[in-house]
Amino acid sequence: MEDFLLNENEREIKYLARKTVKSVPSDLIRSIESENEKFPREFIDINAGANILGLRYPKIYGGRESSWVGDMSAVEEMGYLGFTLSCMYSLGTIVGEPINKFGTKEQKEKYLRGITSGKLYGAEAITEPSGGSDLFGMMKTTAIKKGRSFVLNGQKRFIVGGQGADFFVTYAISDPSATNRTRGVSAFIVDRNTPGLKVETMYGLMGNKGGGTARIVFKDAEIPEENLIGDLNGGYDVFNIMMVPERLTTAAGSVGVGMAAIEIATGYALRRKAFGSKIIEHEGVSFRLAESLTALTGASALVYEASRVADELEKKKVPLAYARKIISMAKLTSSETMWSAVNNAMQVMGGIGYTTVYPIERLLRDARLGLIWTGSSEVMKMIIQHEFVKEISRPEYWNNRRNVEQDALDFKLVEEKVYD
Ligand SMILES: Cc1cc2nc3c(=O)[nH]c(=O)nc-3n(C[C@H](O)[C@H](O)[C@H](O)COP(=O)(O)OP(=O)(O)OC[C@H]3O[C@@H](n4cnc5c(N)ncnc54)[C@H](O)[C@@H]3O)c2cc1C
Predict the structure, then answer these.
(1) Where are the domains of the chain?
(2) What is the pLDDT of residues 141-185, one digit of tens each?
(3) H/E run at residue 170
(4) Euclidean distance between CA atoms 343 and 337, whole angstroms
(5) Atom 38 (ligand 1): residue with closest C-alpha?
(6) Confidence of residue 134 (pLDDT cuts 50, 70, 90)
(7) Tens digits of residue pLDDT in 305-343
(8) Ligand 1: does its nearest atom lie under 6 Å from the Cβ of 111?
(9) Which of 84, 121, 133, 136 gets mutated to test ligand 1 (max ligand atoms within 8 A of its CB)?
(10) Ligand 1 neighbourhood includes 169 CB (under 6 angstroms)
(11) Residue 129: CB within 6 Å of ligand 1?
(12) pLDDT digits 0-9 by tens, 37-46
């Protein structure tokens, strides 16, 4: 994000994140890549030391009360470390947000403070084996009330931090009789040490190593009723708020990943020679870099706009549906742009870009996930078109707006306007 678009606090956060990113030892990234490091807690400690975890939370819980713009400017910087670490960084914001918005004082005291101090690491256990896109429709995990507890049964798939996290924010069916599933699901906090919580499959992944990505199983996992987030059967509302950081962080991190690749490729093109000149002097190379840079700058601008919209949502100045549309656009654009930018970077670097001599191959493998998780590109498009159709179907949308359709030369030929 352009520095001049940020206020003083946001700039300070961005620079702090940049400095922290610079301080992360390359050996840590190499050790994650070679799968010696399965879940790099050290990275959380580095961020806790820099006091940049849970940036948005109230100061009484160790946060900085940052705007979304400030927080996302930090995540953009984290993207330079690749998706594993930028995701690991972002999870504090993702799982903390529902607690911040819906949680009790006790939950905030324990979990928000735990996140900002680096003492507790939270993960999100949302996706199930039966489906991620149609989560509410396909959900099978149940949470049945028993005295002053809830008993959870079911399983959650592809959970980053499945191995390594201290607690999970999860969703389960709490009212199996609800005809509308969005009114029969609740959100919960499940501590790692809950009896009945087991880590099963550890996934072998194409990229994004080191996230401890696992399937976790709840078998009669009994949690205290105090671990309910928000209202009983109010999980859908919690989920919608959680999706703000979920998608914004992927969008912001993607810009950083793409920029890292383009910087490496540009540096390479400035030195590498072919046909008597540096390859950057060949338009086929330099235009590819220029196009990627332009697209990434556009994506970053959209992340900025979406973050501003999220800030307006906080002030209740825009409806959630509008914020959801813009945030989905940012996630869709950024992740797709990142993918093509890293791919372009690899092309510019030729064969050496495909090797582990440069990190482009890692960034490429990492980048592919951006189009799938936190809502796939298709799901983002569904949300965007759905919200837009709703917007333009409201008569007030057309208040003071020109009806361009009537500018057609033969606008009055109504008998030619046949729709079925
Ligand atoms: C490495 C990794 C880490 C992850 N981390 C987490 C995590 O920490 N926590 C968590 O809860 N989840 C996590 N996920 C899960 C991720 O969010 C889901 O994989 C994703 O939402 C897609 O769900 P699915 O895999 O069940 O695919 P499905 O929902 O089965 O979809 C399959 C395909 O069908 C398409 N599709 C579905 N419906 C439609 C439609 N109506 N129109 C057009 N296309 C459609 C999808 O876009 C997709 O291409 C992770 C996944 C991976 C691979």
Answers:
(1) 3-121, 125-233, 236-392
(2) 999 999 999 999 999 999 999 999 999 999 999 999 999 989 999
(3) strand 167-173
(4) 10
(5) 133
(6) very high
(7) 999 999 999 999 999 999 999 999 999 999 999 999 999
(8) no
(9) 133
(10) no
(11) no
(12) 989 999 999 9
Helix (H) or strand (E) segment spanning residue 150 = strand 149-159
Mutate which of 156, 157, 158 for ligand 1? The one with the most ligand atoms within 8 Å of its CB, which is 158
- pTM of the model as a whole: 0.97
Nearest CA to ligand 1 atom 30: 131
C-alpha 133 to ligand 1 mean position (Å)? 5
pLDDT digits (tens, 9 = 90+) for 10-54: 999 999 999 999 999 999 999 999 999 989 999 999 999 999 999
Domain 3-121 has CATH 1.25.10.10: no
- Does ligand 1 come within 6 angstroms of the Cβ of 196? no
Residue with tokens 């003071």: 400
Q: Which amino acid is at 202?
A: M
DSSP states of 187-226 as a string? EEEEETT-TTEEEEEEPP-SS-TTS--EEEEEEEEEEEGG
Q: What is the dihedral of CA 98, 193, 52, 18, to 10 degrees?
A: -110
Place of tokens 């999970």: 168
Q: What is the amino acid identity at position 286?
A: S
Look-up of token digits 């735990």: 114
Q: What is the pLDDT of residues 58-102, one digit of tens each?
A: 999 999 999 999 999 999 999 999 999 999 999 999 999 999 999
- Cα distance between residue 251 and residue 306, in whole Å: 10
Instruction: Write the CATH number of the domain with boundaries 125-233.
Output: 2.40.110.10
Taking domain 236-392, whether its CATH number is 1.20.140.10 is answered by yes
CA distances from 8 to 14, 78, 305 (A): 10, 20, 18
